[in-house]
Write a structure and sequence with these properties.
126 residues; mainly alpha; 5 helices; 75% helix; elongated
Length: 126
């Protein structure tokens, strides 16, 4: 088996994806508690709001915790963390296309989902 170095494109791709899928979920998860980047509750589909106890902001607190945990999982176990992030992004996409109609954001999140799957595959190859 070939030894991968920091100059190897595969290693670089792995490091880039692992870094982004660690940092972004943690930062976005933290922001669910402060709403500095955006007013997160507006993205919640009404049908999801109706099944989650409490207010839409309470739902965002739950989402924030899950996102922080997913980011930490990517840092510790990128093969499995990538799959968890991909599944989470699929849930976000379903929310976006069945609720407020943020199709552009859903499409962006689909691209991120593919990136998370690529991270998982690269981690499996390591």
């Amino acid at each position: 088996m070939e030894v991968l170095t920091r100059t190897d494109p595969t290693t670089q791709a792995f490091v880039l994806l692992r870094t982004v899928f660690t940092v972004a979920p943690v930062l976005f998860g933290l922001d669910k508690f402060f709403n500095l980047l955006v007013d997160w509750p507006v993205y919640l589909a009404p049908w999801i709001d109706s099944i989650v106890p409490g207010t839409p902001q309470t739902a965002m607190y739950i989402v924030g915790v899950i996102e922080i945990v997913a980011g930490v999982l990517v840092a510790l176990a990128p093969k499995w963390g990538g799959l968890v992030v991909a599944a989470w992004l699929l849930g976000i996409i379903v929310n976006l296309v069945t609720g407020p109609g943020y199709y552009d954001i859903a499409l962006r999140d689909f691209g991120l989902l593919v990136g998370a799957l690529a991270l998982s595959r690269l981690a499996a190859a390591r």
